[in-house]
Amino acid sequence: MSTSPLRLVVHGASGRMGQTLLRLAAEQPDQFAVVAAITRKSPPQRVVAGVPHFSANELSAAPAFDVAIDFSLPEGFDPILSLCMERGAALVSGTTGLSDAQQSALRQAASRIPVVWASNFSLGVAVLAELVERAASALKEWDCDIVESHHTQKKDAPSGTALTLGQAAGSAGSDVRYASLRAGDIVGEHTVQFTGLGERLELIHRATNRDIFARGALQAGQRLRGRAPGLYGMRDLLFAG
Predict the structure, then answer these.
(1) Which of 26, 38, 168, 213, CA to CA, is 20 to 30 A from 136?
(2) pLDDT tens, position by position, for the chain (241 residues)?
(3) Which residues contact 104 (CB under 8 A, 6 or more apart)?
(4) Which is the catalytic residue, given 11, 53, 150, 205?
(5) Gap between the Cα atoms of 205 and 197, Å rounded
(6) Is 154 a catalytic residue?
(7) Does 205 qualify as catalytic in the annotation?
């Protein structure tokens, strides 16, 4: 197994997640080396804290890399996917709102490169999804409800994470119901509740710091190194060894 730092391209570097990725990667120079930060518009500085910056129009000029981590917009997704395929590099993406055609292209790319896409890169949520599927399989006659809470600026409801948890429960036979709450500055809370006669089981995840999502994406990048081509989920990377 390689011990050299993982060479990263951070795509969507000017966004909140991109900035967090740059900060966390810089704190672990023995693990990560950001070789390019890609922003939608021309960067005001070419090099920031030792990291070369490129605009989206200059994507092809990015130096050699092992993994691209993409938290951008749907309109920026196609070019970074194409670049990864051209370079034979892995892709970690948390970009939401992808079209059906883009999702199809992602699946096709997975026949040539290792790819992971996730609505939530929290390691705790990945474990929660595993537990939810196991619980749903064992409690087939119980009601299943998912309650999610987020800050007031979040528009989609149910959240992508709630839907992912619902898919985990649904794959084991549960008929899932959802409830959403938008209040204050809640980073993210998800409760999966199984209710039977005279008893109730609750599985809960609470996010208190957004760094967890960037940290999980970095770990996903590490775990993609050396993997065969394929479309992976966070659960695959955590539980497949």
Answers:
(1) 213
(2) 567 999 999 999 999 899 999 999 999 999 999 999 999 988 888 888 899 999 999 999 999 999 999 999 999 999 999 999 999 999 999 998 899 999 999 999 999 999 999 988 999 999 999 999 999 999 999 999 999 999 998 888 999 899 999 999 999 999 999 999 999 999 999 999 999 999 999 999 999 998 999 999 999 999 999 899 999 999 888 876 5
(3) none
(4) 150
(5) 24
(6) yes
(7) no
